[in-house]
Amino acid sequence: MALPRPAVQPMSGELPLEQAWLKLVQAQVETSLGELFDLPDEARLDARWTWAMAQARTYALRPAKRVRPALVMAGHCLAKGTPVVPGELWRFAAGLELLHTFLLIHDDVADRAHLRRGGAALHHLLAPGRGGEDLAVVVGDHLFARSLEAMLESGLPGVARVVRYYLSVCRHTAAGQYLDLALGGAPLSQVSLFQTLRVAYLKTARYGFCAPLVCGAMLGGASPELVAGLERVGRQVGLAYQLKDDLIGLFGDSSVAGKAADGDFMQGKRTFPVLAAYVRAPPRAREELDLLWSLPESLKDARALARARTLVEEHGGREACERLVTRGSHAARRALHSLPNPNGARDLLDALIARLARRIA
Length: 361
Known about the structure:
Layout: H1 17-35, H2 47-60, H3 67-80, H4 87-110, E1 115-116, E2 119-120, H5 122-126, H6 129-153, H7 159-182, H8 193-219, H9 224-251, H10 254-257, H11 263-266, H12 272-280, H13 283-294, H14 302-314, H15 317-336, H16 345-357
Antiparallel strand pairs: 1-2
Helix pairs in contact: 1-3, 1-4, 1-16, 3-4, 3-8, 3-16, 4-6, 7-8, 8-9, 9-15, 12-13, 12-14, 12-15, 13-14, 15-16
């Protein structure tokens, strides 16, 4: 199957090429993703398990950007020098996306989230309270195993080495998630801007951007130089993506984002815009920021959220974060322009990076 090639600018009413590319990837990967839930050996285990898997399948197939599979395809096309990708690569990408689904399920339990991609978090679908959380953790474990099966079943040359590399990145993702949760109980005075960036790098940049690009490239037989170049691109765009997520998590609109816009505040997340405001604020404002972020969740009402947003905005946290998003996106595009551009694959990736920097969800 061939991915679209850049050509002239789209005419009025036509989708931009990178958007058409994303839609193609979404459709193809979601078809393969749905097929991963067809498991004859589980068909008669128990009606309850069958129901849980149906819920998990519906959850996994909710509308999503599918950026990671798109990056796998882009890395492969850059390495191979052709827009034609083997059918087996879609199965690998679907397995990678299923592993992402597993992480979302566990993250939602840890973050006590209610919404994901415009619908209820899986643990709320499975059962109320702690029981639903326990069940969701188990379903996530199942999807993790299934994702590894799917990637290895693709049978692509060198796939075992690529999966080992991806799992090593996932270990670092776990460390990033641990730090994100552990820092949630620390006073703002004990958290540095460097720590927030390290969490962003471990939790998002390596796993969500470097790794998919590198996996696709490795499966396409990339040179060490191309792999290193894609890692640089992925690191910068991944940091920009997470910092944009930090802004959406505090200032976003839940009806657009598909998840709670007050989630980071409610969970006391020590994100970059919060710390950037804290280090710039005078002593009294610092005390108020620390007090707001340390409030128990039961006291974090709409008034507290509004005040938190005002303080972060007034003391430059939002602006500093937006500048870093712009800087990271520009750095990613500069690094990308040093790479080859077979059949316009680099141009597609460049347009995608620019689109991600402008996103509101």
